[in-house]
Amino acid sequence: MPRITDKYSTRSEAIIHKGSCYDFVKNIPDSSVTLVVTSPPYNIGKKYEKKSSLNDYYIKQEQIIDECVRILADNGSICWQIGNFVENSEIVPLDILLYPIFYKHNLKLRNRIIWQFGHGLHASKRFSGRYETILWFTKTDNYVFNLDAVRVPQKYPQKKYFKGPRIGELSCNPLGKNPSDIWDIPNVKNNHVEKTIHPCQFPIELVERLVLALTNEKDMVFDPFLGVGSTTAAALKNNRKGMGCEILDEYYDIAIERTELAMNGKIKTRPMNKPIYDPENPKENLEYELEFKSAQLTLFHKSPAYRVSK
What we know:
Oligomer: single chain
Number of domains: 1
Largest sheet: 9 strands, mixed
Strand content: 15-25%
Radius of gyration: 20 Å
Number of helices: 8
Structural class: alpha/beta
Order of helices and strands: EEHEHEEEHEEEHEHEHHH
């Protein structure tokens, strides 16, 4: 069987369907997906969407969210990454608009993650938007959460207790710190290593953190609005299964290509947790880079892969 198929199959490593997610999702069995992660259209008239009233937009989102809840495993998560609907310089925060859909299914909101980034369109009648949100819901209280897999370098990794019974010992987790609910990850612009023709591309680093934290190896990850395949690439890159839908031929072809590259370990990505370069503080950049690499080495030495290799 081909490694990437168009139709649902439990034997495929990746399933990328060219067509509507509203039709395709009906073929997915109940409780078969561990993570649904997506960035749906924002109803602002991009090439890949038809702008409609907010009421019609809500109804369409409700249809796909209802199906995503149905296919979600009991230990699974849904991550709905969304921005704002904008019209005449007035914004409607779509995460707030859509929250009641998830709430009616008794899903549990674990975090409202703020994804902040440094570049975007410049507004003239309001402050320029530089963040979006990820609503992370779980189906039950028994959910996959691998915090150690996504820890980030400590700001002061050698900080020690200066008094008390643990004086002299490290006061922070040697594996790194919890990344918190504010994520500073560059969005994909023209000079980004992952840039394709898609105008609103999902950075793999963002998806990868969710994949590593909220799934285990071989679990299924589903993106109903796949675009150019960032989600399937992030899944396959980390030994998960990936599945998604795309309606536009040019994006579908790129999704296939990027997913194949991820399967073969050849996809170019911005490394997870790479420090964001500050041109005004080159010395601080270098120090942080060294701390980051040191923390990575510590994580590797504690990993099962390293113990096996020894």
